[in-house]
Amino acid sequence: MMNSTRLLRSSISSVRTLPPRGPRLVATLTTAAPYDGPPLPPIKSPSSPQQLVNPYLGGLQKGPAEASTFQLHVYSSRNNTIATFTNQKGNPIAWWTGGSCGFKKSNRSSYEAGYQCTVRAFEKILNHRNEVGPFSLEVVFKGFGQGREAMQKALLASEGEKIRPFVARLTDKTPVKIGGTRAKKARRL
């Protein structure tokens, strides 16, 4: 029994004295840097001009970023066309409808009424730009009436040549029902 105890002790001591076979791992405690929040985007120098893209001009315009953005809202229903020119806060500056442009009854919903509203809106926008100074313009469409097409054609025609350079964005805010409530019963004649 004594021999087996010696053999066991000698084998344990030899295990302790053997050099490690693999790399030795050493754990150290380090303190992390204080958290400063998410990383920030790269800083753009204020002297470099912002590049604006206007789809009607087909290229890049170089110039300073416009300080304010005014909006031209065009609501076109089956019965009328309403064009509203608003400031950056959404307060109306001027508005035009088919009726205010001289069209009566069912003529208010015609293509020509929408075109006349658009032309008068463009004149007011140019006058306001001369008074206030440079600003960019966002055109917002709503509805599927004939005045919508009239506004698009006027913007691309010669009447819109002076407006096109400072149109920054075209937006369509027409509500489209997906599912929703049940439609009204069809009218039978």
Describe the structure.
26% of the residues lie in helices and 22% in strands. The protein has a five-stranded mixed β-sheet with strand order 5-4-3-6-7, covered by helices on one side. The chain has a two-stranded antiparallel ribbon with strand order 1-2. The relative contact order is 0.14. It has 189 residues and is an alpha/beta fold. The mean pLDDT is 81. It has a domain at 70-172: 2-Layer Sandwich (Nucleotidyltransferase, domain 5). It contains three helices and seven strands, in the order H-E-E-E-E-E-H-E-H-E. The radius of gyration is 36 Å and the shape is elongated. This is Translational machinery component. One of its GO terms (cellular component) is ribosome. It comes from Thelephora terrestris.
| Overall average pLDDT | 81
Please name the CATH topology of the domain at 70-172: Nucleotidyltransferase, domain 5
Structural class: alpha/beta
- Order of H and E elements: HEEEEEHEHE
- Assess the beta-strand content as a share of residues: 15-25%
**N→C terminal distance:** 116 Å
The total of beta strands comes to 7
CATH-scheme architecture of the domain at 70-172:
2-Layer Sandwich
Helix content: 25-40%
Overall body shape: elongated
CATH superfamily of the domain at 70-172: Ribosomal protein S11/S14
CATH C-level of the domain at 70-172: Alpha Beta
Rg calc: 36 Å
